[in-house]
């Protein structure tokens, strides 16, 4: 009886894996040369600021940075790598998951949870949120990946980069794995990642303003916090914090590659030095959560491997995003205003759920109480 049930579960897992793997296999380029980050080859669309939406509700503002994407990349990954085993982690990831900005955004919705929606233990309170993604995205493949299935899926996707798997398996808390998983699945497959307690209010087809060409964008992020107050550092780890409960990306985006490499290296280093034991909840935000996510995004925007800085007026910082009410575009990256992914928080300029720019509704479960604010990301995932 027991063995039969187990066999059934294993078979179900296997079929699910097979389905994911085969459905999601995009055709590989025939010439397996290391990826050219297509953003380098982008047409000159740097100056187009995404300031209007189809709703017309947002103010139009002038251009905000004149940063040009590089025509020719000078990243180290450009030499033909004969022997990938000797390549750096970042080069291996770039080779394995080439980035092509001109491809369509993959029609996937990825979520993770302890249980599948088919399970009685899934949680009645998450069902409407989970269903909202399917309802708003007909034709998309929508997967809720359990922790057990995640291991198998990642083993397949990252077979040739074993240090990533080692890092994933070494992470001591489910919240760390959940954080890491979102970057891993988006780097490998692209699409939308969203937390299980997050509702889709609008289809992703409406997230980008009409005047932004989809074939020029590879990453869409929202703002989690923009605390315009003297004592912001008491409550937040960064003056502007990008959220990671909802992300849309094309596979191979350099920001995802960098954060996967960063977390992998940090994890393996901590493992070696014994720092993973007794890892504290309140460090999650810096290790895998919104702090490192925010830093990685800013580093990308200021990276001369991706942008021609010669015409730039200086580094892009939080000042470029504070108080913004319309989407902003930096190269192939779009940052949505706080209302889009954090509506209804009743502070920091966020509008309510019924605002035309409100795209997802994230359940904060009381994390907006000041004493919890610094740990958003940690407490937020404490539900797991
Ligand atoms: C990871 O990113 C953080 C930025 O938040 C940086 O301080 C750290 O040095 C990076 N680590 C690695 C190994 O790249
Ligand atoms: C600009 O940003 C880059 C990458 O984050 C950093 O290395 C550099 O020191 C910054 N420059 C200034 C002037 O802040």
Automatic annotation (TrEMBL):
Keyword terms: Glycosyltransferase, Golgi apparatus, Membrane, Signal, Signal-anchor, Transferase, Transmembrane, Transmembrane helix
Pfam entry (one): Gly_transf_sug
Superkingdom, natural source: Eukaryota
Chief location: membrane
Transmembrane stretches, start-end: none
Signal peptide: 1-23
Gene3D superfamilies: 3.90.550.20
One GO process term, biological-process aspect: protein N-linked glycosylation
Bilayer topology term: Single-pass type II membrane protein; Single-pass membrane protein
GO molecular function, one term: alpha-1,6-mannosyltransferase activity
GO cellular component: mannan polymerase complex
Region (Disordered): 31-69
Cited InterPro entries: GlycoTrfase_DXD_sugar-bd_CS, Nucleotide-diphossugar_trans, Och1-like
Subcellular location: Endomembrane system; Golgi apparatus membrane
Polar residues bias: start-end ranges: 38-65
Similarity remark: Belongs to the glycosyltransferase 32 family.
Protein name: Glycosyltransferase family 32 protein
